[in-house]
Amino acid sequence: MHRITGKAGGDSLIEMSPSDSFNDDINGYHQNASASAGSFQQGQSEIDKQQHSKDSVFFRDGLRRIDFVLSYVDDKDGERKQERRKVYEANLVNVGLELETEDKSESEDGKTYFVKIHAPWEVLATYADVLKIKVPFKANDIPDTKEMPMNWLSTPFRLPEHVMHPEPDYFTAPFNKSKTDFFLIDDKDTFFPPSVRNRIVFYILSRCSYYRDECADKDKKGIKRLLNNGTYTAAFPLHDCRYTTRSRDANCESERYNLYKHWARFFCFFKEQPLNLIRKYYGEKIGIYFAWLGFYTEMLLFAAVVGTICFIYGFLTYDDNEWSKEICNPDTGGKIIMCPLCDKKCGYWKLNSTCNSSWQSHLFDNVATVFFAIFMGIWVTLFLEFWKRRQARLEYEWDLVDFEEEQQQLQLRPEYETKCTNRKLNRITQETEWVLDRTATDIMGKLLLCWATVLLWISLIIACIIGVIAYRLAVYAAFASIMKDNPTSHLQVVGPYITPQLATSVTASCINFVIIMILNLMYERVAVWITDMEIPKTHMEYENKLTVKMFLFQFVNYYSSCFYVAFFKGKFVGYPGKYEYMFGSKLRNEECDPGGCLIELTTQLVIVMTGKQVWGNIQEALVPWLMNWWGSRKARNHPESLYSRWEQDHDLQGFGQLGLFYEYLEMVIQFGFITLFVASFPLAPLLALFNNIIEVRVDAWKLTTQFRRPVAAKAHSIGAWQEILNGMAVLSVVTNAFIVAFTSDMIPRLVYMYAYQPDGEMNMKGYINNSLSVFNISEIRLANRPDDGESPSWFNSSITTCRYRDYRYPPGHEKQYSHTMQFWHILAAKLAFIIIMEHVVFLVKFFVAWMIPDVPTEVRARIKRERYLVQEYLHNYEVEKLKIQLSQNGHNDCTCTPMIYPSIKHEVLSECL
Fold first, then answer.
1. Which residues pair with 338 in a beta bridge?
2. What's the chain's Rg over C-alpha atoms?
3. What distance in Å separates the CA atoms of residue 903 and residue 882, rounded to the nearest whole number?
4. CA torsion 701→707→712→716, rounded to 10°?
5. Cα-based angle 814, 819, 823 (whole degrees, multiple of 5)
6. β-pair type (906-908, 14-16)
7. Mean pLDDT across 770-799
8. pLDDT tens column, 376-427
9. DSSP β-ladder status, 349-350 and 337-338
C-alpha cells in the first residue's frame, strides 16, 4: 500500500521504498529502482554505444526515455564535488528516478561525464498528482462553431493541420493517481509528453538534497546550487532530434524538426505560427510569449499602414509648405539675420541656412501628425483589449483557466523553501505551509537597501544624460565655429544637409546609445542581485519583482534623452539680453531650430530605436551561433564519431531561467518607442513591424537550433508586462498630446492662420516673420557676443538688429522684450489642445474597453460547459466505481471509498521542509 507522510503538496520529495543505501553504485541502471525495469538490466553493459543512432533519446536498452541530463567534469576540487554528486544521485534514486552514466572516455572531449535520468511511471504519476497536472479523460465533443468569412483567402498563410494541431482536443482534469482508470491512458510510456516529463524531473532535481543529514543544513539542496558551485556543469532536457532531419527512431516525435521546418526558417515569415506545437514542445510559458509577439506584430501592421499614409501625406504636401518657402526665399529668409545660438563661438547667421531642415521637418510635422497621435491612442487600446481576448482563448485551449492559484500554492522557489524556518496555517487552504521568518526590521532594512540601490542607479543614468546634454552644448559651439564658412558644402549629396544642429544631434544620439548599452549590461546584474536578496516566494513573484526594477531602469535609460529633446530643449533659453544657463555654468541652454525641435526628436528616436533593434538581433542570433560553432569544433574534427544527442545538446547554449524575461523587455521597450513618441515619427510602427517580422523568426531559430531545450514551464498570461503595457498606453496619450502642443509648431501655425494673418486669409503667408522677435544688437551683453572672426564675412556694422525664436515686443516698445499677447494666446491654445485631445482619446479608449469584453462569450460558455461535463463524468465515474465495489463485496456492510494513495509505501525524504 502506498502512503505519503507529511504535506501532500509541492514542498517535499517523495521517496520510493525499499530505499537504496548511499553506497550503491549509481553508474548505470539500479536493479532496485523500479520493479518494472528489472528486465532491462541483463545484457545492458554488452550493448555498444556505437550501435545507437546519433539522435537516440533513450537509455542503452532502447526503451527507457531520457528525461533529463546532468553533465560534470572532474577537477582539482574533485573529492568534495564527487561526494556531493554521489549523495545527490543516490537521493535521486531513492526518490524513484533511474540513472545511467556515460563515462568520460566515451565523450568527445574525453573529460565530460553525462548522467542520464529517466522517470518511470510511478514517479511521473506521483508528481503529476502533486503538481495537479491536467491530463485528458475524454475527447472534446463540443462542436466548434467558429468559422471565418472568406476562409480561402488565408490558405497561403496556413500550415499543415498536423503541425498546427499536433494532438486532438480533449476534456482534461487534474491527474489523480487513485483514479488512473478514469483517464485516457493507452500507453504509460507516452501518456505524459516529454515537456511534462522534464518539468516533473526538474521539480525533483530542484528540491533534492546533496547532503547526507537532511536536517543539518537545509541550504544544501537543489540542482541550481550544484550548478553554481561547479559540482555539475549543465542540467538540461534533450531535444528529440536534430533540427535538419527527422529521427530514425519511430518512437521519437521529431517535433524539433517540424518546428524548424515550418516555424524557425526565415522564409516562413508570412506563415502562421504553430502555437500548439510550440506549447507542446516548449511549454505554455514560451507558447504564450510567441502568441503575444505574433499578435503584437499583426496589430503593428495596421499602425504601420496608417503611419505610412501620414508620412506620404507630408511628402505629397511638400510643395504647399508656405513657411519653408519663406525660409528658403533669398528675399525673405535670406535677409533675416538671426542672433547667435551660443556664446563666443557662434556668429550671426541667415535664416535661409536652415532651408533643408525646414523641408525635412515638414515630413513629420504636419496636420496628419495630430490625426496619427489620436489614432495611436485608440490603436493601443484596441491592441490591449483584443490581446486579452486572445489570451483568454489560449487559457481555455491550453487548460490554464484555473492555473493562477495552483501557481501561487505549488510552484514555490527552492531558494525560498531552503530559507523557511516556521510553519503557519494558511487561512484559505487550511493547510500548514512553510513561511520565511522575517522581522519588521529585517524587511524594512532590505526594502530600503534594495530601493536605495535602484534610485542610486537611476541617478547614475540621469547624470549620464546630463553629461550628454553638456556635450551637446559644448560641441555645438565647436561645430558652429568650424562650419561657419560651409566647409561641408563640397560634399556630394549629404553636404548641404550637414548643419551644426544635425551634426550635434547625430553624434550626441550615438554617444547616448553607447552609454545606454553599457549601463544595461551593468544594471542587469544589479537588478538580479537585488531581487535575489528579497527572496520572493514563487517564480511568478520573482519575475514580477525583477520586471518592475528592470523596466524602471530601462524606462529612464532609453527614454530620458527623448524626454529631454521633446519637453525641455528650447523651452528655457531666455532671450538675447537675458540667456538661461545650465545649472549656473557657462553652457547656455540649447535652442531649437527655427523649424522646431521635432526633427531633432525624430533623429534621436530613429538612432536609439534602430540601433537597439539592430544590436539586439545581432546579439541574439550571431553571438549564440559563434559560441556554438566554437564549442562544437571537436565534433567537426571527428565526423566519424557518434556525437550523441546529449553531447550535441551539451554544446548548445543554455536558455536560462530569465531567457524570456529579456525577450519581453526588448519588445516592451520597443512598444514604448512607437507609442510614447510616435507623434514625432509616424514611420516608427513600420520600422517596428519589419523588426518584429525578423524577431519572430530569429527567436524561433535560436530557440530551435542554438539553445538547449528549456525546461517546460506554465504561465497563464504575460504576467506583470500586462500592467506595464496598460500604464504605457495611458502615458502615451499624455506624451503625444504634449509633443504636438509644445514640440511641434502645429498650434502656433494654426493660431497665426486663424487669428493673426494680416490679410485675413486662411494661409501661412508671413508666418516666419511673425514668429521671430527682434533684438537690438547693441544691447547684447559682451559675454554673449561672438568673438572676432566668428561672424561670417557678410556681417557688418550696418546691421543693427537680429531675430530670435519667440513672441516678445521689439526694442523701443513700452513693454520691450516682454511676451506679447500672441504668446499667451498660443499658450492657451496649447493647453486647450492637450485637454481636448486627452479627453477625446480617453473617452474613446474607455468606451472601446467597455464594448470589448475581456473573455469572448463563446469561450466563457465553453468553459462553463466543460466544467459541468467534468463534474458530471467524475460523478458518474465515482458512482460506477462504488457499484462495482459493492457488487464485489456482496453483502459486506463496508462501503469505503476508493483509496486515495497507491499501494506502494511512500516516505517523505525530508521533514525539514
1. 349, 803
2. 34
3. 19
4. -50
5. 135
6. antiparallel
7. 85
8. 989 999 999 999 999 999 988 888 877 654 554 445 666 776 676 666 766 6
9. antiparallel
Q: What angle do CA 458, 463, 465 make, to 5 degrees?
A: 95
Q: Which of 370, 314, 371, 378 lies closest to 830, judged by CA?
A: 370
Nearest one of 545, 543, 552, 544 to 523, comparing CA atoms = 552
Which range, 218-227, 259-268, 575-584, has the best average confidence (pLDDT)? 259-268
Verify cis geometry, omega within 30 degrees of 0, for the bond prior to 748: no
**Cell 544624460 belongs to which residue?**
465
- 139 pLDDT tier (thresholds 50, 70, 90): confident
Q: Which range has highest mean pLDDT (121-130, 147-156, 209-218)?
A: 121-130
Which is higher by pLDDT, 729 or 75?
729
Three-class secondary structure of residue 423 per DSSP: strand
Q: Which residues contact 666 (CB under 8 A, 6 or more apart)?
A: 612, 616
How confident is the prediction for the chain on average, in pLDDT?
79
Does the pLDDT value for residue 194 go beyond 50? yes
User: Nine-digit cell at 561?
Assistant: 534623452
Those residues whose C-beta lies under 8 Å from the C-beta of residue 309, and which sit 6 or more positions away, are 368
> Measured between alpha carbons, how far is 724 from 49 in angstroms, rounded to an integer?
52
pLDDT at residue 213 greater than cutoff 80: no
pLDDT value of residue 23: 38
Identity of the amino acid at 390: R
Residue keyed to cell 475581456: 854
Q: What is the largest CA-CA distance in the chain?
A: 125
Counted residue by residue, the chain has a size of 913
Which of these ranges, 34-48, 235-249, 826-840, has the smallest mean pLDDT? 34-48
240-247's contacts with Cβ under 8 Å and 24+ in sequence apart are: 240/55, 240/57, 240/194, 241/55, 241/57, 241/645, 242/54, 242/55, 242/648, 243/704, 243/705, 247/53, 247/55, 247/57
Please list, in sequence order, all residues whose beta carbon lies within 8 angstroms of the beta carbon of residue 520, skipping any fewer than 6 positions away: 554, 557
Residue 736 near residue 378 (C-beta atoms within 8 A): no
What amino acid occupies position 363? Answer: L
SS (H, E, C) 810-871: CCCCCCCCCECHHHHHHHHHHHHHHHHHHHHHHHHHHHHHHHCCCCCHHHHHHHHHHHHHHH
Query: CA angle at residue 442 from 436 to 444, to 5 degrees?
Result: 115
Find residue 135's DSSP bridge partners. Answer: 173
Distance CA 255, CA 242 (A): 10
Apex 630 CA angle, 100 and 661, nearest 5 = 75
Rounded Cα gap, residues 175 and 528, in angstroms = 35
| Interior/surface letters 217-248, b for 16+ CB within 10 angstroms, e for the rest | ebebbbbebbbeeebbebbbbbbbbbbeebbe
Give the cell for residue 818. Answer: 516682454
Burial pattern 502-522, b for ≥16 Cβ within 10 A else e, equals: bbbbbbbbebbbebbeebbee
